[in-house]
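Researcher: Let's run the pair from yesterday's discussion. Sequence first, then tokens, for each.
Model: Starting with the first of the pair.
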Amino acid sequence: LFGPDNYHPSAEGYATAAMAMLPTLCAVLGLWPESDRLDGSRREDILPVAKAASQAAREAGTEVTGARAPWA
């Protein structure tokens, strides 16, 4: 991901950084399509961590993270 001088990013490095930042930046600016946004007011899919981890273990590619709290 670094250029020939091993200090500055390569084109691939810049592209990787842009892919990581673009969704958040567009969402903040209101430019991300509504269908791709998560509705934070919907709490129906939030499970206790133990139950979520058990379900995630059955499906490859899933992960379990804690809910974001106002103080986090």
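Model: Moving on to the second of the pair.
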Amino acid sequence: MSALLTVADVHIAYGKVEAVRGVSLDVGENEIVTIIGANGAGKTTLLNAIMGVLPLRGRTTFAGVDMAPLDIEDRVATGLSLVPEHRELFGTMNVEDNLELGAFRIAKATAARSLERVYTLFPRLKERRKQLAGTLSGGEQQMLAMGRALMGAPKLLMLDEPSLGLAPIIVADIFRIVDELRAAGVSVLLVEQNAQAALQIADRAYVMELGEFVLSGSAKEIAANKGVAASYLGFQLEGESAI
């Protein structure tokens, strides 16, 4: 499988404090890769740096293109998109207007097709298309944030804590849609504290602690690791003790 996104020996600092140290990862085409870890591990920082929000040291390529000279808008144009942890919607604008903001770089006819695609994925958004974004439930706002990111037809969607604060039934719906995106040819880089849900749909996983990757492998391998089970899944594997 060819790598769509490659991150090599990346370091990210806030002033003199290094928040991410020497991490490397790759995401292939039609693949879901998850990064799990505790709050403050550096997961969000890494996504923001890949998107160009924060400076980094190291090498990042996307679809064979060196991203170092690209600003955020150029990275979006190459097919990279980020749904941030706090969604960053425009609460006083309606659902459809928020969605259309995600299509600012594409032709009107293409945007219309993207809008219908988003409404097919998220029929609830179509029902509420004239409702103000600020009046939506948390789950609906997450759907809207994802829909807006999909309006530009990205090749890779980065999701930062999409399950945060949502009821289990809504989380299941969100993760079902993530799985559908992979089937439709969209790769996903998923940052998630809900490790159990993330590992159920991911192809591969990285475990991040204190700014470094301490473990990586297939999602099944990571889920079967006794230390991961005790630290992130909330249980110990039968016959084993936690690290």
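Researcher: Give me one sentence on the second I can quote.
Model: The longest helix spans residues 168-183.
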